[in-house]
Amino acid sequence: MNSFVTYLIIAAILVAAELVYFRIADRFNIIDKPNQRSSHTKVTLRGGGIIFLFGAWLWAAFFGLQYPWFMVGLTLISLVSFADDVHSVPNWARLVVQFTAMFLMFHELGILKLDMWWAVLIAWIVCVGITNAYNFMDGINGITGAYSLSVLLPLVYVNSKMPFIDMPFLIVTGLAVLVFCFFNFRKKAKCFAGDVGAIGMAFILIFAVGKLMVHENDLTYIVFFTVYGVDTVLTICHRIMLHEHLGEAHRKHAYQIMANELKMPHTLVSIIYMLLQMAVSFGMILLPMKHWVYMCIVFAVCGSAYLLFMRKYYHLHEEYLKTKEA
Predict the structure, then answer these.
(1) How sure is the predictor about 37, in pLDDT bands with cuts at 50, 70 and 90?
(2) Which H or E element spans position 32?
(3) 274 CB-near residues (< 8 Å, 6+ apart)
(4) Exposed e or buried b per residue across 289-311, where buried means at least 16 C-beta atoms within 10 angstroms of its C-beta
(5) Element spanning 209, H or E
(6) pLDDT tens for residues 52-96?
(7) Angle, nearest 10°, between helix axes 68-86 and 51-63?
(8) Element (H, E) at 31
(9) Count of helix runs (H) and strand runs (E) in the chain
């Protein structure tokens, strides 16, 4: 069986699996109800992002279980996230599983070294933070799928030039994202990714980028998460300055203000985030510049753009809050 036919079969199975999941979610009332953080107004099926875990299992079934510890970690973190989608799981339980799953990933990457324990500890905390940040950013139609493609495509390109990870793994992950986008990247989404989708995809992408970092011994590939990273970190800083409880729901991310206060279509905002991240990533790959210099410039430019955007439009969110209080 040639690769093209194999990928067609996998894509067909993924579509069927997603449709079956919709029936299950509808039967057991696995839904997303709008809240203060939401940018949607209608009840929608939740957990459609479980297809990312299905995709990983299918890759292992068709191409071999090449990364067993990673797969165990992905399964653990996805299942507890799905349980949280169905019925709230205590924060401590989720964090225990997330740190355990990340430990298994680090074992797969071969970076658990006692002489560098402090660096591993920092990376451990940062990577768990990234998985949760990816979940925080999943608030409008299409953004998780579009942004995931903006990370996957540069990884596929780099892998075609200097192999660092199994290419079918990236392709099957991309197929799972495309199938999800078919149902989510639209004005009226059929489903949302849920925690299982956002956190599961973050885990997959961190592993892939981590493989590239280890292969090239270059930590600056963290720029593949620049747009989400800048939005998340600076929004957290902003909320701290406002003396807000970080665990409370909010709509202060730049993408939320674009979708809610500026009334931009969700899919347009998602495309903007995707194109920005792709430009940043391919700039890193193609421009003849030292990576660390490029990284500093990109962080500075994106950070400045975020601050300018908030300076111009954040007052609209304040006006929205006043109307809610009234």
Answers:
(1) low
(2) strand 31-32
(3) 146, 147, 149, 150
(4) eebeebbeebbeebeeebeeebe
(5) helix 194-216
(6) 999 999 999 999 999 999 999 999 999 999 999 999 899 999 999
(7) 160
(8) strand 31-32
(9) 12, 2
CB-CB contact of 250 with 319 (8 Å): no
d(CA 60, CA 219) in angstroms, rounded, equals 28
pLDDT digits (tens, 9 = 90+) for 134-155: 999 998 999 999 999 999 999 9
Contact partners, residue 31, CB within 8 Å, separation at least 6: 25, 43, 44, 45, 46
- Over residues 249-273, mean pLDDT: 95
pLDDT of residue 19: 97
For residue 245, give every residue at least 6 positions away whose Cβ sits within 8 Å of its Cβ, in sequence order, or none: none
Q: Phi, psi at residue 88, to the nearest 5°?
A: -50, 130
Q: Is 217 left (phi over 0), alpha (psi -120 to 50) or beta?
A: left
Give the residue-averaged pLDDT of 285-307: 97
The pLDDT of residue 249: 80
